[in-house]
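Sequence in, structure out. Go.
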Amino acid sequence: MNDQFSHIDAEGSPSMVDVGKKKVSRRYAKARAVISLPPEVALHLQDDEIQTKKGPVFQTANLAGVMGAKKTPDLIPLCHPIGLDKCKVEITSPFNGEVWIDCTVEVEAKTGVEMEALTGASIAALTIYDMCKALSHDIVIKEIKLMEKTGGKKDFSRGK
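Output:
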């Protein structure tokens, strides 16, 4: 079993991957969360922002996403704590009522940053939900997915 799952040891127990002998390389990952806003929330979208009593939604979600990426090893038990070199959250509304959250993360390290990018996108999406739920509970976080990664054993790209 442990030859299939990197976080399972020979006895079948959860185990942090030993990255001690890996080479340091440039690691990059981009994750996307997609949110569907119901009309009663989407109509508040003006100039790529939603203003609520709690403040500017997308600006707050952007900060929350960066904070979430930085806190990934505190949230996901077997993630290595790494100092991120770069983390950027971009929030756009390319389609009527749909919001895309792209979180890109970079580091020079022995391990990748996919989980940090996925966590950043997730926390930003949850922040948008939290700040807009007073308008409607029909907000749907449709998906959170890895879009691309480079560095490490193999690169990955989902495309646009």
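Check: The chain has one domain: 25-151. Residues 25-151 form a domain with the Alpha-Beta Plaits fold (CATH 3.30.70.640).
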